Fold this sequence. Notes:
The chain is 46% helix and 19% strand. The protein has helices spanning 25-79, 88-110, and strands at 5-6, 21-22, 113-115, 129-135, 145-150, 153-155, 158-161, 163-168. The longest helix is centred in the first third of the chain and has 55 residues, at 25-79.
Amino acid sequence: MKRPRAANPSAGDACETPGRAEFDPLFEIEQDVRRLLKDYSVLRQETDEYREKTESDFKKLLLSFIEVADAFENVWRNINPKLNGADPQAKKWAASFKTVYRMLIRALSGWDVVPIETMVGEKADPLWHKVLEAEEDPGRENGAILEEIKKGYLWKGRLLRSAEVRAVNNQ
């Protein structure tokens, strides 16, 4: 690698000042490339950190909306059986409530959030299911799902939240 050389070798140390030194063009280009590569590396790291933070924040937001959907489902589960004998105004209110819930689910779907299909009787898979409660049932296979307590969800094909289930534990 060539170093700067003096414009006038007989001038001695006076040629070492930045304004009076004559530089090799390749040396300058090499320095520029090193500087650009360093800048690129820093920008790439900052971009990766920003992307990770943004994705993490968006996951938190999606999980918050899912919690709201869970609350809607719990309320609906409680009022639905009581609607048969309800007055027309209560039925209208329930229909509006159901419409808002569907809008929320449609919005989640628009963000590529989809529920995990959990079937009662299938074996709980630790990748998709979190067993919150276990009970003995000699007539069923160990690990068989008895009830889905909370739905699990995928986001862009990746697990966002495990389904919470009650399953058989015959031990």
